Structures are given as C-alpha cells and as structure tokens.
Amino acid sequence: MEKKALIIGATGIVGGNLAQHLLSRGDWHVTGLSRGRNAMQSGVASVAADLTSQASVADALKGRDFSHVFFTAWARQATERENIRVNGAMVQHVLEALGPTGNLQHTALVTGLKHYLGPFEAYGQGNVPVTPFREEQGRQPVDNFYYEQEDRLFEAAGRYGFGWSVHRPHTIIGFALGNAMNMGMTLAVYATLCKETRQPFVFPGSPAQWDSLTDMTDARLLARHLEWAATSPNARNEDFNVVNGDVFRWKWMWSRIAQYFGIEPAPFDGQTRPLESRMQHAGKPWAEIAARHQLKEAEIGKLVSWWHTDADLGRPMEVLTDMTKSRKAGFLDYQSTPDAFFDLFDRLKAERIIPA
C-alpha cells in the first residue's frame, strides 16, 4: 500500500528533518500542512490551513487521504490553559477531517520531556520523577497541553481505528530557521558573538546542569524513530522516549563546543547567567558580523531562542532519559551528541548562517 504522509509542521526542526528523511527513503509521498508562511522543501507538497480553525482544516483536507499523520508542531499561548485549548483542538481538527476517510493507518504525536517535568508555568517545580525518566512513570498532577493532545489522539484512534505513537524527545539538535526552540542554533550564534567580539564564552546554566548527566535528541534520529514507530507492529499504540543513546555532562560538552569555534570556555563559577538578559543588545553586533561575513540573516531574533536555551540549561535538577522501551521494541539506532552539534554547525557554515 502506498505510504502517504501528512506532516503537521513540515517546515520546523522536527517536521523538516522528518520530511527530508521520508523523501530519502523513496517510498513515501510527503505533504506538509502549515499556514503557508514558509516555503516547503523540494519534493514536499503543500497544504495551507489555519490549524486553530476547524472549518479551515476541514476545507483544506476535503477530498484528500493520507495513510500516516505526524504532528510535529505546536502553538505557544500565554497560559497553559490556553495551550491546552488551542493545541488540543489542533490535533482534533486534523483527525476529525481525516479519520472518516478510513485510509488513516497511523498517527504520531511529538511532545517532549515536559511530560515528566511539567509545562513552562510549573517547569521542574513539582514532584519530578526519579531519573532516568521512564514511560511507565506516567503523568504529573498539573495542567499540561501534552496530556490534552494525547487524549484527543487516543479518542480519535479509538473512534476511527487507526494506530498511534507518542514520541518524547529531549532537547532537539537540528537544522531549522525561525524555530522557537533551537538550542543548537542559539549556541552557534552565541559562540560566534563571543569569538567575534572577544567576549568570554560563559556557560549560562545552573550548577545542576553543569555537573549532572544529561542527554539530547538529534532531529535526524527522531525522524528515523518516527518512521520506525509508524511502520512497526511492535510500536503500535505505544509511547516512547527518544534520545541519542549517549550521555554527557555540560562541564565536558561546553569545552568541546568552545574548541569547535576556536575559543576558550570561561571557567564556571557556579552562578547561573541567563542568555536572555545578557543578550538584549546583541542585535547590533550580530548585524555587523552578518554584514562583514555576508551571512544570510542579519536579524538575530530570527535565529536564536535565548529563553528556551535558558530554560533547558537553567533547570535545577538532573534530566536524563531511558530508552529501554524503544530498544526492546526493536529500535536500536544511535547518534553521537557531539557529532550532532558539529554536523549542525558545519551545515550552518555551509548555508552561510554563521561565519565559516
């Protein structure tokens, strides 16, 4: 049977890497659904719709059928209650439009480790489970739009008879422009600023993140995990953590990133120094760097997400993820996290996003 994928968020860090991966396989027809603000990559068909509008989604998907749907996007709102209302409805609108066709085989939902840590409003403030996080630890007793999305997915799957999978990556490393949660891009811009302006390369996070074990998720590995779960009977109707498979401490990784950029890491003195407050005036020097090196993007706000990197690196507890469930089900892939960073940095240079 022909595999026809609809990717919700096909221009983002997860959706873009997933689209590229599926196209490389040769047996997928790939369509991306978005508001139409950003161009789809070559080979991806485009459908424009406002996901928050049931009528807009229904009209855009009328007469279309897909075998697989991948939800890789969300819309950040001012409060978690609004996150729940808006993001839950987005899932429901798509599945109500496609479920009745009878052709939908599988729907995958990408969420993340806020499943265990809590939403931004209560991030890491509750009774966080013991690390490494395992799928059987379940939900936290707080409002969380991830749970609402899951419930809408489960309800639609039960009604229309398709399979599902839920994927919980840690911080994602991958190429994407204009992404709201992109630590790799943010650190590349930060390191470039430090090098070009001769400022110290200061670790912005907490002592807990500096000293504790942690892990990350390469967007390319996540793409392979999504395809595996969508086509493997062992993964049907299951939730999975998904990380690279190695572990590290930031006290080790920080010096590797500094070495890549040819700069010296500043000694860590135990103080948390968030990027968002320190980088408020970084726009002008970045524009000068962009002009000097003929970079593609001179507006720093379109490249970085200081707030998100601060949230990840400022966490006051160890964050580490277990992959046993995926391994036992048959997913044995692995990705070196240093290589994930360096591959991204190399591509950013090749694309003239940062200086070569």
Automatic annotation (TrEMBL):
It comes from the Bacteria. SUPFAM superfamilies: NAD(P)-binding Rossmann-fold domains (SSF51735). Transmembrane segments: none annotated. This is PRISE-like Rossmann-fold domain-containing protein. InterPro entries: NAD(P)-bd_dom_sf, PRISE-like_Rossmann-fold. Residues 66-355 form the PRISE-like Rossmann-fold domain. Signal peptide: none annotated. It comes from Paraburkholderia solisilvae. Pfam families: PRISE.
